[in-house]
């Protein structure tokens, strides 16, 4: 089986990564499986002080991540391909590598950039971490 892991953050580039993964799978005769993975970053708001407030922020961010996966699943045309959605909390780059490794994916398909603000960079910090740390083949989509 052909297992593709597509880490998504809601950016246009990540959407293109999904489209690339889908068209690759459609061209193959072999049964394929795509997993969309979103990591709810626990690094996003490290300094929100009071415990109760932190919990509310965490819940809101988690909710946003669930919504992202749900709306993405609804808008993609997945005829003939098995696609599932996974939500993990933690440090995005690290969790993507760990998930790919532990679950024996054949390929990671991800964007070179994401929702970050600095558009001049060729690689964002998440794609950079994944390229550095994973032993899984990676296809970087622009
Ligand atoms: N939280 C996340 N969960 C899953 N995948 C992610 C996440 N963030 C980014 N990605 C994946 O990594 C790709 C590159 O995004 P990255 O975050 O590295 O760039 P950026 O947002 O432009 O830069 P930075 O986050 O360093 O400001 C995205 O297209 C997406 O495939
Ligand atoms: Mg980013």
From TrEMBL:
InterPro entries: Rossmann-like_a/b/a_fold, Universal_stress_UspA, UspA. Residues 2-142 form the UspA domain. Pfam families: Usp. Belongs to the universal stress protein A family. This is Nucleotide-binding universal stress UspA family protein.
């Amino acid at each position: 089986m052909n297992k593709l892991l597509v880490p998504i953050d809601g950016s246009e580039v990540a959407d293109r990564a999904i489209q690339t993964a889908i068209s690759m799978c459609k061209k193959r005769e072999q049964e394929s499986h795509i997993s969309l993975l979103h990591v709810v970053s626990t690094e996003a708001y490290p300094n929100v002080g009071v415990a109760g407030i932190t919990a509310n922020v965490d819940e809101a961010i988690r909710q946003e991540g669930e919504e992202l996966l749900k709306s993405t699943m609804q808008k993609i045309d997945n005829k003939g391909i098995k696609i599932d959605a996974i939500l993990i909390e933690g440090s995005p780059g690290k969790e993507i590598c760990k998930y790919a490794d532990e679950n024996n994916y054949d390929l990671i398909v991800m964007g070179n950039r994401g929702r970050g603000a600095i558009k001049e960079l060729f690689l964002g910090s998440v794609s950079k971490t994944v390229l550095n740390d994973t032993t899984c083949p990676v296809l970087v989509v622009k």
